[in-house]
Specification:
heterodimer
């Protein structure tokens, strides 16, 4: 793609740009049967909405999930390519717009491969089956004698070979087989799945040609910045834009409606400045003089809230999970161990701050956004513009990091509202300050853990009590209860074989928008559980690894259905898999090896979103108490691997992200206002 | 009127001298490979070369750029394939995840190798310090720089 983009919508459709796919190219879906094609010289054959093949054999595979660094634009399409025996070098990947026909596109919850591997395999196998049939028809043999192989079909008995491009016209005449007639490959025949693949966006990402949200350029596009209420559910009391209006780049002011509880994904309200360019928009925005009315969240003070949360976890609470009689076990204990943990709010701080482009016309609304959830953007645009879904197109750009932030389309709604007001395409860019101060924050939390040990230091009771504002509060303003699914991320489903066990949660009222960040509640619940596990090891005088394996107990399948937690998609928690990653990582890390003075090894293990992970961290503490991390080992069992390299990359990145949160992350509020604003006061590693 | 060169092409600018180079590149020239990350010179996503040195384009205003020679990621490579050894090293080591910061990382690394073709670990750490990657690709960035240094040696 050219590095200078001056593309209209028509140009996008014409060129079929990598990121913005024209529907006209896609052909018909499975539900409609094959596209009637007489000759393929100028047409594309598309027996499945995820695959289309041009007359020359060039293959396009649709990725319907959002790419934010996890490698999904490579991972899902390569599954299709593998099943259809495509030559990966002849495949290009196109990003799907938001459209329910692709299935769920909400790229959240770490399930893209798990959720869509089967569908991708079926798409690929459908194409392969039809191409094999087409070859069989040409040769007058039975399909069972033909085998697809790397963009060709081979007749095994005669050794005859036909390339895919010579089979398209015949295949296009065939009915699309039912799923029941398709035979998937056996895993031993996987060509790409489980291997090491370079990502499809490598060239663009290293040459400045990859298209992120802010890189869209449309004719007549305006640039906007928004002054948002500094307090959630605050509103504009009065404003004076005269200084902004005097600036050369200024075009106009747009007043945005104040958000009403619950926050949901609504735009925050405030005053938008529309300008010639991004910098003028920011400059004019900063020149606005606005008097705000803060509303009920103006009293939020995170230092006081810390004490409130700690007070909450110091008193008994209702149990979400209760086994045995923990109270009796504590009363009878030879020794008890207890600790409190407090973790602050965290911001996502993706390298690309939120940004979106909208072009709202009387009969059509087109959006370009780095969104994790394009179908929700379609619904939002439908609601805001009054246009029906078929008149809304949401193009998904690359996401310059997201970590859960870009599941929420508040920033896209701003672009839609402003474009409607000015009657032109508008890009809304968030400054880093906007991003840090108007995030959906990872919840602040307090936790209390207590363990009882008997005369032989065997653990007899485990108590874990948490208090934190729930993600549920974002969707129901009255919700002050931690949700079961939040507890299910490392607290309620603690895998320890302790006979008496209680997991309790206390109410906490949210005063900012609470969102999800990467591994969500695992962040603080895993931190506390694993740190406390080490406290128990110290109290028992045991090696932390021996203590951890002892707590984990015998291999077994855990069943939390009595506490309202059923296995995700039928995959139960298998403690043997956790034990194996613990053993693997300690072996690789050289657990027990001799260390330099001031160095120590720590271990943690966690079951998160169906993956089993164990980590050994070497920490070096210097004479002044400063610390650094010379080495980290990670073992993960994530089930079926598609691209090993991206799994490794995710582990490398998670280590940096986790250390960054542990070492630096701290979002605080005073007077309802977030006190951090940029990387100088919200540093990241 | 400010006269400068961007990726070898002569350019003239007669707007507000306070305009940061970053936004001149992105919004006026549509050279969108250079990224906005912080606007305060804190993250390095906007790194370009000014007369061969790596600089943060978000804090450099147009008023000071008379006669400047600016190179962006789009103009980094030479030859028909426009592939700089650092870019090739990035691909060979599968560095990018989300990719957003990588233009800045690559520009910073290319300037380092230009000045110091044989950097040691300390040189690499010092030169790359302050170019933030939220995906955490640092380990591969360091490997790729060492690889590029060997390739060009």
């Amino acid at each position: 793609m050219n590095h200078i983009r001056q593309l209209s919508r028509r140009d996008f459709l014409k060129t079929g740009g990598v990121f913005v796919v024209g529907i006209s190219l896609l052909g018909c879906g499975r539900e409609n049967g094959p596209m009637p094609v007489e000759k393929l010289a100028t047409e594309t054959w598309s027996p499945d909405i995820f695959v289309s093949i041009d007359a020359d054999g060039s293959t396009r595979i649709i990725c319907h999930r959002s790419e934010m660094g996890q490698g999904i634009r490579t991972g899902l399409p390569v599954i299709v390519a593998d099943e259809m025996e495509a030559d990966w070098a002849r495949v290009s990947v196109q990003q799907a717009p938001g459209d329910a026909k692709y299935g769920d596109q909400n790229t959240d919850g770490s399930w893209s491969v798990r959720g869509f591997m089967q569908r991708m395999r079926e798409a690929g196998a459908t194409v392969r089956t039809m191409l094999e049939q087409s070859a069989a028809d040409q040769w007058g043999v039975d399909r069972s004698e033909c085998r697809a192989q790397l963009h060709t079909v081979v007749h095994q008995a005669s050794g005859k070979v036909l390339p895919y491009e010579d089979l398209l016209a015949g295949a296009a005449q065939l009915p699309v087989p039912d799923i029941g007639q398709i035979v998937l490959k056996t895993p031993d025949r996987f060509r790409y799945i489980g291997g090491e693949l370079s990502i499809v966006d490598m060239h663009d990402m290293t040459h400045g040609t990859a298209v992120y949200g802010g890189d869209i350029r449309l004719p007549g596009m305006k640039f906007a910045a928004v002054a948002r209420p500094p307090v959630v559910f605050g509103r504009v009391k009065s404003f004076d834009a005269s200084k902004a209006e005097a600036e050369a780049g200024f075009e106009r002011i747009v007043e945005l409606p104040a958000a009403e509880p619950p926050a949901g994904y609504q735009a925050r309200g405030g005053i938008a400045v529309v300008a010639h360019d991004s910098w003028s928009a920011f400059k004019c925005r900063d020149l606005l003089e606005i008097e705000w009315e803060d509303g009920p969240n103006g009293d939020y003070d995170s230092a006081a809230f810390r004490e409130t949360l700690l007070g909450q976890v110091r008193k008994p609470a209702p149990a979400a999970r209760a086994e045995g009689d923990a109270d009796a076990a504590f009363a009878a204990a030879a020794q008890t161990v207890a600790a409190e943990y407090y973790l602050p709010h965290l911001a996502h701080a993706s390298m690309e701050p939120p940004v979106a482009v909208a072009s709202v016309q009387t009969d059509f609304c087109e959006i370009w956004a780095p969104t994790q959830d394009p179908q929700t953007v379609v619904s939002m645009a439908e609601k805001i513009t009054g246009l029906s879904k078929d008149k809304v197109r949401v193009n998904v750009t690359l996401l310059g990091g997201a970590f859960g932030r870009k599941s929420k389309c508040d920033f896209v709604e701003e672009a839609v509202l402003i474009s409607m007001a000015v009657g032109a395409p508008v890009m809304v860019t968030w400054s880093r300050e906007d991003d840090i101060q108007h995030d959906y924050y990872h919840a602040v939390s307090a936790q209390y853990l207590r363990a009882a040990l008997d005369e032989q230091t065997a653990p007899t009771a485990w108590l874990h009590r948490v208090a934190y504002p729930s993600i549920g509060s974002t969707f129901d303003a009255a919700n002050a209860q931690v949700q079961g699914w939040e507890l299910g991320m490392g607290a309620l489903n603690v895998p320890y074989a302790v006979p008496n066990l209680r997991v309790e949660s206390q109410a906490a009222q949210a005063k900012v928008r609470i969102g999800w960040l990467r591994s969500v509640c695992n962040i603080f619940q895993s931190f506390a559980v694993n740190a406390f596990t080490d406290e128990i090891a110290a109290a028992r005088g045991m090696d932390p690894l021996d203590n951890l394996l002892d707590l984990l107990g015998p291999d077994r399948i855990l069943d939390f259905s009595a506490f309202g937690q059923n296995p995700i998609e039928g995959y139960p928690f298998d403690t043997a898999r956790l034990r194996r990653v613990i053993e693997k990582v300690t072996q690789e890390a050289g657990w027990g090896r001799e260390l330099p003075a001031g160095h120590g090894l720590g271990i943690a293990a966690q079951y998160s979103f169906l993956s089993y992970v164990a980590t050994v961290v070497e920490v070096a503490v210097d004479a002044d108490g400063g610390w650094r991390v010379p080495r980290v080992d990670v073992a993960i069992d994530c089930g079926q691997m598609v691209n090993r390299d991206r799994i490794r990359a995710q582990q490398e990145g998670s280590v940096v992200f986790g250390l960054s949160l542990a070492r630096e992350g701290d979002i605080t509020a005073a007077g309802g206002r977030i006190q951090q604003s940029n990387f100088h006061d919200y540093p990241v590693l | 009127m400010i006269k400068l060169k961007v990726n070898g092409q002569p350019r003239e600018f007669d707007g507000d001298g306070d305009l940061p180079l970053l936004w001149y590149l992105r919004d006026l020239l549509n050279l969108t490979g250079t990224k906005y990350g912080c606007g305060k010179g804190l993250c390095g996503a906007c790194t370009v070369h000014l007369d061969g040195e790596a600089v943060r384009s978000c804090t450099l205003t147009m008023a000071g750029l008379e006669g400047a020679d600016v190179t962006t990621i789009e103009g980094l490579g030479a030859g028909d394939d426009r592939e700089h050894p650092v870019q090739a090293a990035w691909a060979a080591h599968d560095v990018p995840q989300c990719g957003y910061c990588q233009s800045g990382q690559i520009m910073q690394a290319a300037a380092l190798l230009q000045r110091n073709p044989h950097p040691d670990e300390q040189d690499i750490a010092e030169a790359m310090d302050g170019v933030i990657c939220r995906c955490g690709t640092y380990q591969r960035i360091r490997k790729a720089i060492r690889f590029a240094a060997e390739e060009t040696a």
